[in-house]
Design goal:
- The protein is α/β, with parallel strands linked by helices.
- It folds into two domains: 31-150 and 287-358, Response regulator (Rossmann fold, 3-Layer(aba) Sandwich); 155-280 and 367-387, Response regulator (Rossmann fold), CATH 3.40.50.
- The chain contains twelve helices and 15 strands.
- The protein has helices at 4-20, 47-63, 87-99, 111-124, 153-157, 179-192, 212-221, 233-245, 264-270, 290-302, 310-324, 332-340; strands at 33-40, 70-71, 74-82, 104-107, 127-130, 146-148, 170-176, 198-204, 225-229, 253-257, 277-280, 343-346, 349-353, 360-372, 375-387.
- Strands 7, 8, 9, 10, 11, 12, 13, 14 and 15 form a nine-stranded mixed beta sheet that branches. Strands 2-3-1-4-5-6 form a six-stranded mixed beta sheet, with helices on both faces.
- α2 crosses α11 (310-324), α3 (87-99) packs parallel to α4 (111-124) and α7 (212-221) crosses α8 (233-245).
- The protein is globular.
- The N and C termini lie far apart (75 Å).
């Protein structure tokens, strides 16, 4: 019979052996899979953006690996979570993913969520590739763990340098009262104030159902331009209808971003005759190329439709592959170094990662909607290349 002290000694010795065992100290590279966490909206007003992003991501992971869905023999394992544009829900999902050993997390259409996840990435030293959330503060030189695969609000304004006159003209900033809308106010003033523009802000609560009071305020402002920043596809039609009913466009030329395919007919109809200025980061076929041809064929075969943020998902896939290729340890610091020197030709043309603030240097577009066979479709007016912020 063993004495108690002998049992204790044996347990300590066994524990010591376990702690120094080669199995317990094997690097993450021993894994045969690459875990990717996707957090974005697949419900609510941003659902169409999240769905397009995920489809683009999954297509890109397959396309850029020649159908293998693997890099260096390691398969991609994707975990997807719906954030519902709720930072608290996204935070819980992020922590679960990190706890399960995931060190690459991507996504979110919500700027509020992206602004929450960025600091978490730094705290946990994991790679976070945000997109398509646009608030400029999501990426900065202060947080090396955060990149983005889409464009910023400030980049949305870049094509407006072609718009004249602007000096001394009032621009009404009609925006959602949330991080996305407030980010657009910041971008508008940062870009247009130096050109002599004047501003009036109208912040609309995201829960608004009756837009009439806000549209009336816009009409009374008597601006030369009205910049509209609205991300909720579920209420965009009602919002634009109110602006038409209050005859806002009689004096104010509308400026807005060309949104998803579901809004083409809404925008086309409600902006008809208003000489609208439509900025854009992507629509199917805006740039010709190998990837554009391939995705058009694959989506047609699968019965899918490309959308505004398809390219953002595809970009994220290309970035993930670049980060892990030849990185046998899946070391996050090595991922960062690889991404900071990345450039590639994607669905929007040449794309480069800005090594300073981790934004993308990319093309932006001015577009128009034209009625073809009873439906409105986008076409390219002009391209602004290598837009850097």
């Amino acid at each position: 019979m063993f004495k108690k002290t002998s049992i204790k000694t044996a347990l300590v010795a066994a524990l010591a052996i376990a702690l120094v065992s080669p199995v317990s100290t094997a690097p993450a590279s021993a894994a045969t899979e690459i875990k990717i966490g996707v957090i974005t909206s697949t419900s609510g007003g941003l659902k169409s953006y999240g769905d397009a992003y995920i489809d683009g991501l999954e297509w890109g992971l397959k396309y850029y690996t020649n159908g293998k869905n693997a890099v260096d023999g390691r398969k991609f394992v994707i975990t997807k979570k719906d954030d519902g544009a709720d930072p608290a829900s996204a935070t819980a999902s992020f922590k679960d993913m990190v706890g399960n050993g995931t060190n690459i997390i991507v996504g979110t259409a919500s700027s509020g969520v992206a602004l929450t996840l960025g600091p978490l990435a730094a705290q946990n030293k994991v790679l976070y590739i945000s997109g398509p959330a646009k608030n400029d503060a999501v990426t900065s030189a202060a947080n090396k763990y955060v990149f983005r695969s889409g464009n910023t609000s400030l980049q949305d304004f870049a094509p407006l340098q072609k718009i004249k006159p602007i000096k001394g003209k009032k621009v009404i900033l009609f925006v959602e009262d949330n991080p996305f809308g407030l980010g657009n106010i910041f971008a508008a003033k940062a870009y247009l104030a130096s050109k002599g523009a004047l501003f009036e802000e109208i912040k609309v609560p995201t829960t608004t159902v009756d837009f009439t009071p806000f549209a009336k305020k816009a009409a009374d402002a008597n601006g030369a331009y009205i910049f509209i920043a609205w991300s909720n596809a579920a209420t965009a039609g009602a919002m634009f209808t109110s602006l038409v009913q209050q005859k806002v466009y009689a004096t104010a030329r509308p400026i807005t971003g060309l949104a998803g395919v579901d809004t083409y007919n809404i925008y086309g109809t409600l902006l008809e005759g208003a000489n609208a200025i439509l900025t854009n980061s992507y629509f199917p076929g805006v740039v010709k190329g190998k990837a554009a041809t391939a995705i058009a064929a694959d989506y047609a075969k699968a019965g899918k439709t490309q959308d505004l943020f398809t390219s953002t998902g595809v970009n994220a896939a290309k970035m993930i592959i670049a980060a892990v290729k030849g990185n046998k340890d899946l070391d996050v610091e090595k991922m960062i170094t690889k991404l900071e020197s990345l450039s590639f030709v994607g669905l929007t043309g040449l794309v480069k990662v800005n090594p300073i603030n981790h934004t993308l240097i990319q093309s932006m577009f001015l577009t128009k909607l034209t009625k073809v066979n009873g439906r409105y479709v986008p076409s390219l007016v002009s391209t602004l290349y290598n837009v850097k912020v």
